[in-house]
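Figure 2 data, in text form.
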Amino acid sequence: GYYVHTLDLRTEEIPEEADLVVISAPKSDFERSAAGSGIRAETDKLREFIDDGGNLYVSLDPYLKTPLNALSALLAEYGLALRTETDADGNRVSAVLRDTERGITTDGFTLVLQPAEGAGTSGISDRMTAAGAGDVILSSAGVLTLSEGARSLYEASSSAVIQADGTTIDRGGSYPVIAYGEKA
């Protein structure tokens, strides 16, 4: 029941009949318009689509070394950010979840995520429950930082840790991995 169309946001508009735009593991950053240029860049098109009721699904590669500043700024408007860490040399390093309680591999990097506590308070969570959404399996999952307007939908267990460059950097557990955001 879906019509799938590949879209080049640099040269094309998002079709009016589109309900969902999927951005999956981008390798380079998106364009953003220069102030006063009058040019609608990729992030402008995405923002307008979301603000007009469209849905955006984004999955990011936590190992990507290329900064995604424009896309990250857009997601931050909706309270979403991929957690990053900085090494001793000032370089951005991958921060990934290791969860031996819910891990399905011996190293704990492929894990089963369960719905977050209180996730059922949103319209999207209600739709997930009605559709019978259950656990989600992810490998090399990054951690999200949520601010106002964002809610966790799926999270790691309370025994999960964050590792960067093979070193455990945080033992807080119950980290958000899948979330949704709305403008505050």
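Caption note: Residues 119 and 153 are 5 Å apart (CA to CA).
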